[in-house]
Design goal:
- With 365 residues, the protein is an alpha/beta fold.
- Helices cover 46% and strands 12% of the residues.
- Helix 13 links the parallel strand 9 and strand 10.
- Helix 8 packs across helix 9 and helix 8 packs across helix 10.
- The longest helix is centred in the middle third of the chain and has 25 residues.
- The chain is globular and about 60 Å long.
- Bound molecules: coproporphyrinogen III.
- Coproporphyrinogen III binds next to strand 5.
Length: 365
Amino acid sequence: MTTDTTGTVARDGDSRPGGPADSPFIRACRRRPVPHTPVWFMRQAGRSLPEYREIRASVPMLESCRRPELVTEITLQPVRRHGVDAAILFSDIVVPVAAAGIDLDIVPGTGPVVAEPIRTAADVERIRRITRDDVSYVDEAVRQLVVELGDTPLIGFAGAPFTLASYLVEGGPSRTHAKTKALMYGDPELWHALCARLAEVTLAFLRVQIDAGVSAVQLFDSWAGALSEADYRRFVLPHSTTVLSGLVNAGVPRIHFGVGTGELLGAMGEAGADVVGVDWRTPLDVATGRIGADKAVQGNLDPCVLLAPWPVVEAEVRRILEQGRAAPGHVFNLGHGVLPETDPEVLTRVVALVHELSSRRADQG
Ligand code: CP3
């Protein structure tokens, strides 16, 4: 183990020149110089790809997450097709919760649906702590992928306590998170017990992925933007901190992402992130002002822009690269996941454009 200038412990084995830990993606996460701005897309493995739809035609979503050979193939598809700088493990944020004993399904076109929502202390106890054996298929898939990917880094991920709690309390996707907030405000003790248990499950799930060889992790708190900063700090930050600070010595960069989090960016960085994900609402230079110069940023093209004519896409990519220069490290991404109706060829063109424009800059010093 060695400690780099960012104060993070790096893994010895894979920091050899050209290995995943020396890749543009990991270098940008660690705020080191890069040959080009790295780019990957949230939800890059999925319904925008015909090769994905073909595989999934006969296999339900959760089952596909539990079959290592399918996880490996689906994870590799966007890397082969687009030449992105990182792969993200094909899984879902509810996979560890299902492994913890909660009866749920992912319904096409709807999202996660929980058979018996969590509303009482006894319900919280139904969420078991998990070990590697509960998610051995993830361990196996990551090990296969690390071999297949060679020098391309693999990103592991998990859902953050608030976003997971929202699915569990509501029983499914919600626009207002009304039941979740009612529990949060109405029974803070139960709320904190629920989030503490989810933080344990999430931390264990991320540790399995790190032990199996992922090069970075992303904590998705997709719906945290539903909260004010004060409520985020009181009800959510302690639990996300448990997860991220629990990985401080794990030797991999930690990305913390949410949507509609313009007011929360500083707090999300404080939770213990190396990189803060930014949606399209906040320009990256403004975001960096809020997050601080000791963290990299990731983002932030509006996924809907990819549906516009190419000159519009190109202008937006240029603007984002320019604004990203204000940050001490920039990983190009969307502000949220790829929409299913996106033309995959546009994604491939965006990757090439990001590389071309940013390496020209690097040449100029
Ligand atoms: O490519 C990747 O990014 C890796 C795979 C991935 C999936 N889900 C696969 C998936 C990742 C990183 C996720 C994370 C996830 N899942 C989040 C956080 C990211 C975000 O979008 O904010 C959330 C909130 C979920 C919960 C979830 N799962 C939703 C809202 C949905 C969509 C429902 C729908 O059909 O519109 C899912 C299902 C899901 N997860 C799909 C995929 C590829 C679609 C399933 C299908 O193909 O039918």
